[in-house]
Every structure is written in C-alpha cells, then in structure tokens.
Amino acid sequence: MNKCMKLKAYVLPLFFAVVILSCNTPQPIKSIAETDLAKFVWISTDYKELTEEDEIMIAPYAYMRLFADSSFTGIALRGYFTGKWIHKKDNGQLWLIPDSNFIPVIREQLVVVGMHKKIETEMEWSLLKKNNGEFSDPYATLYMKQGTGNPAIDPFAPAYNLYRQKPDKPESPDDIKKRVINYLDFLEAFYMFSSENKLTKPESDWFPTPLKMEMSGSIRMANSEELKDWYACFYNDEQAIEGYKIISGAFVQLKLKNKADIHLRNASFITQIKEAIK
Asked: CATH 2.40.128 spans which residues of the chain?
C-alpha cells in the first residue's frame, strides 16, 4: 500500500475505545492517568488472532502515540493514520477517533478493551466487534508496552511526517529538498527510537524505504521496483526521482560506521546524508 497515504479502508474502524479494566471489572479513570497515557508511545510486543476469518479485518498495531493535545498517531503493520483521542472521565474509556479524511468501509465497528497487567507500563488490548449495539467476544488480542524516547525527537509526531502529504502542485527544487530532509529527519528519529527501545526488528512497511537499511553488513539504495511508496509522496514520478537523486548523490560518498547496534548505525548514516545535502 501507499505509505504516504493512510491505512487501507478495510483496516480502518469507525472508532476505537480503550476501556481500562482490572480483574475484569470496569474501573474509574484513576487506573491510569492521562499524563501516563500521553507520556510517549505504546508498542505492540505480540498479538494473537483468534479466527482466520477475522485476520483480514485488522492489521495488528505496532505503535500507538497519544499526544497531550488530544491528537494521536496510529501505526499499523500496513500503514499510518491520525486522529483525536477523548478520555471519558465518567467511565474511564479512551475513544480514538480517526481524522475525517478516512473512509471506513468495515462491516462492524471495532472496540479495543485495555486491561492493565501488574505493571502499569504494560497493557493487554482485546479487540471486539460492535454489531447492532452488541459487543462480540474478543477476536484478537494485542500485548502493548509503553516505550521511551525523546519527545523533542519523535518519529510519530506530525512535524516528522510532513513528507507524507502529497503536494497538489509541482514543487520547486528547494521544496523537494525540504521534503527529502523531513523524511530523513523522520527516519533518523525512528532508528534512534528503535535503539532506545531495543526493538529487535522494527516494522518498516508503514513508510517508504528508498534506503534499504535492514541488512546487518550493508545499506543499499532501493531499485525502481521498490519505489512505489516513495513516488506517492511527491507531485509526480519525475519529482520523486529528483528527491531520490538527492539521497543517492550523498549515499555514494559515505561509509558505514560501527555502532552499538544496527539502529544507531542506521541513524548515524542518515545523519551523514543530511550533513552532505544541507
């Protein structure tokens, strides 16, 4: 799918609600503070799909970022979306409402039920269907933990994802360069986040990858067949190629540096590219 656009319609619910539970009994909002919910990002550590039929209904969420201004960013294995969250203080529910530019065509509404484990930084989210006002039994479970990071260098923040907004008219060379640099800022921040949270294999299919950085011993530029999602971030293919050339021109001049892990290595390489093109 297009990583510069939003989630495919079949994985978009009309809404999500996180209900704070303890011992299977609804608890008031004191079970988790809003400041803790919006402290940083929630990371999916594992998931369980209960039926083969329901597997196509959702994409397991890799990251969910709640911001203090009541906005949120959701990252699924197949895409990226944004919206607003509302903490209902009368019942402790957290409603996640996607932005209006999403077109949900799912059969039923979905609800996420969050159950705290013994550690407040971990939660278990069960997905339910809502049909004719009735909730189904859980059909999928996500296991979430609270990640850490520097809020000033946040790959999930809208400011780091401006490159996703496809322009409606041709851009100047300077504008193309700014778009490329915003993408590199995002990528650098994402790999720094991945290192800090010790992610073994962070999901990367929710953003374009003109740089192929998953190999332990090398980094390469993507070939033409791997650039569909990169093209979608620009006005047209020609301008996308110009953006690609900005990166590839710096790429051939650089060398990998040994770092403590592959994520820091990747972040360091991106820093070098940024320095070479600015």
From this structure: 9-146
Helix (H) / strand (E) containing 30: none
Closest-CA residue to 124 (of 136, 105, 138) = 138
The dihedral of CA 222, 227, 232, 234: what is its sign? positive
The architecture CATH gives domain 9-146? Beta Barrel (2.40)
CB of 240 closer than 8 Å to CB of 230 = yes
Task: Give the model confidence (pLDDT) of 62-105 as tens digits.
Answer: 788 888 888 988 887 667 888 888 776 665 566 666 676 544 43
List the beta bridge partners of residue 19: 93, 113
Nearest to 4 by CA among 191, 205, 277, 190: 205
- Give the length of the chain: 278
Can you give the pLDDT at residue 81?
A: 80
d(C-alpha 85, C-alpha 64), whole Å:
11
Strand blocks (E) in the chain? 16-22, 25-26, 41-49, 61-66, 71-76, 79-88, 93-98, 109-116, 122-131, 134-135, 140-146, 211-212, 220-221
